[in-house]
């Protein structure tokens, strides 16, 4: 039987593609994967468990056929706050008029509507801002009662049933995981997803609660989409396994001019800690209905790559758009082109964080430096839990990172990590065995040829997480 050709990406920054009605067919998912999708996102704000189960099964079949690990992100909905219903389904709120939000469940009018969230009424104070329908309408609280908020309409407009409510000024006393989220979480973990997207996080305690429920069965990818989360950025990142710059809701609660700065701050902080960071939302938005992006959108993707993001994400472009394949293909082309630019490498080197003050951090930094000095074809990181590969990726080396692991779950998690080509291999027990394995895999996966050199980083004794302490240079023979 002929050997199956090895799939190797020509770029280091990864691509996350959201699944939805436009791409649930197995043949379309196959095209998205081969076009460049490294991770598939399941959005639990939409679809049934049966829908998501079918998508997971298709992804794992695709993984088996391709011989490449594929990451699956289960993005749970989080606490969606909404107004109630109106008598005619829709009203128009006039700027300057008064408007009441209350606990009365009867249909609303142009003067009042039900707000079925007593926690908002309790937490909001005089002068607080309420944003309705993704920030299109803006209200300011003028009076407060136990069962209602009286507001002034600062920016009016049309408002229909069940539109969302955002409260950017206060921390709301609500958990990040609702009962629906807990059911979705249990379902997703039972089916072996690799990351849990945690929505509307406000405090470190929100992440700690999710981590306790997940219990190591997946990485927690915290979505930064609340101003309150930015105020607790360092503590939240310390508890998270990965982070997403979720610019959609973040852009509702932050002024538009603040969002680019928040994006850079989050990416920089995540890189400092060596935590994978995904930049998401509206990256190629016009490709929902057009086969090509705007030039501004292409520049937006390029900016995320220049910033050093581990991955960039497509949302409605693939989930509900008319051109899902073209969107992934275009993102792949933009990322690959940016990474060929000498300015990208110069900026990547200039923005490299200081090496971690630990044995493992020193080994990772040394692996990059040695690889650079001798022009090694690849850095091979033996990793049980992913830690060694993450540390090497944090250094943003010039050559590719081969992440070798005996753990299939670790290989799938590394699908979102910058520059890492993960391969599942049998366990090794000695450094000599590891070096031999590394040279064989580098050769078979097409990363090095006979006579070329690679750098090997590992932890001795093998099989123990957090023990990165060994470094070798080897010639492929």
Can you summarize this structure?
This protein has 17 helices and 21 strands. It is α/β, with parallel strands linked by helices and 477 residues long.
Structure description:
With 477 residues, this protein is α/β, with parallel strands linked by helices. It has helices at residues 26-35, 49-66, 118-123, 179-190, 204-214, 227-231, 233-239, 247-253, 259-273, 295-307, 316-319, 324-340, 342-350, 359-374, 387-394, 408-413, 431-444; strands at residues 14-18, 39-43, 71-75, 90-93, 98-102, 112-114, 129-132, 137-144, 148-155, 157-160, 165-166, 195-198, 219-224, 242-246, 277-280, 311-314, 379-382, 401-405, 420-424, 453-459, 468-475. The strands form 4 sheets. Strands 1-2-3-12-13-14-15-16 form an 8-stranded parallel β-barrel, surrounded by 6 helices. Strand 2 (39-43), helix 2 and strand 3 (71-75) form a beta-alpha-beta unit. The longest helix has 18 residues, at 49-66. It starts with 13 loop residues before the first strand and ends with a strand.
């Amino acid at each position: 039987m002929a050997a199956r050709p090895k799939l190797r990406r020509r770029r280091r920054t990864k691509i996350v593609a959201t699944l939805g009605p436009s791409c649930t067919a197995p043949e379309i998912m196959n095209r998205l994967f081969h076009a460049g999708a490294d991770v598939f996102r399941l959005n639990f704000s939409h679809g049934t468990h049966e829908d998501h189960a079918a998508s997971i099964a298709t992804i794992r079949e695709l993984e088996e056929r391709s011989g490449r690990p594929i990451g699956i992100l289960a993005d749970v909905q989080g606490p969606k706050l909404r107004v109630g219903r109106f008598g005619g389904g829709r009203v128009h709120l006039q700027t300057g008029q008064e408007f009441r939000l209350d606990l009365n469940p009867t249909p609303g009018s142009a003067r009042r509507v039900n707000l079925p969230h007593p926690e908002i009424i309790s937490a909001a104070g005089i002068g607080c801002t309420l944003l309705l329908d993704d920030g299109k309408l803006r209200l300011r609280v003028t009076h407060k009662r136990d069962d209602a908020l009286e507001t002034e309409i600062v920016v009016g407009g049309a408002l229909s049933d069940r539109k969302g409510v955002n409260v950017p000024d206060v921390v709301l006393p609500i958990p990040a995981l609702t009962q629906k989220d807990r059911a979705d979480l249990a379902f997703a973990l039972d089916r072996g997803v690799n990351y849990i997207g945690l929505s509307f996080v406000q405090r470190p305690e929100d992440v700690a609660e999710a981590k306790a429920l997940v219990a190591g069965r997946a990485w927690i990818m915290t979505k930064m989409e609340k101003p309150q989360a930015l105020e607790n950025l360092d503590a939240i990142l310390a508890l998270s396994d990965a982070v997403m710059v979720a610019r959609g809701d973040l852009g509702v609660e932050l002024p538009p001019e603040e969002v680019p700065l928040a994006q850079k701050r989050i990416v920089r902080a995540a890189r400092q800690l060596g935590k994978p960071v995904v930049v998401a939302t509206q990256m190629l938005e016009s490709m929902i209905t057009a086969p090509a992006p705007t030039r501004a959108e292409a520049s937006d993707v390029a900016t995320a790559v220049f910033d050093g993001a581990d991955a960039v994400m497509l949302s409605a472009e693939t989930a509900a758009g008319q051109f899902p394949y073209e969107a992934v293909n275009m993102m792949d082309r933009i990322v690959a082109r940016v990474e060929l630019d000498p300015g990208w490498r110069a900026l990547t080197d200039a923005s490299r964080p200081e090496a971690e003050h630990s044995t493992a951090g020193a080994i990772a930094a040394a692996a990059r430096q040695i690889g650079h000095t001798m022009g090694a074809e690849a850095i091979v990181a033996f990793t049980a839990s992913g830690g060694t590969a993450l540390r090497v990726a944090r250094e943003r080396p010039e050559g590719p990172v081969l992440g070798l692991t005996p753990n299939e779950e670790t290989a799938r998690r590394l699908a979102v990590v910058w520059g890492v080509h993960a391969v599942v291999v049998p366990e090794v027990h000695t450094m000599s065995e590891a070096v031999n394995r590394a040279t064989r895999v580098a050769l078979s996966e097409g990363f090095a040829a006979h006579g070329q050199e690679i750098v090997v980083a590992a932890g001795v004794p093998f099989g123990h997480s957090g023990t990165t302490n060994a470094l070798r240079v080897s010639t492929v023979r």
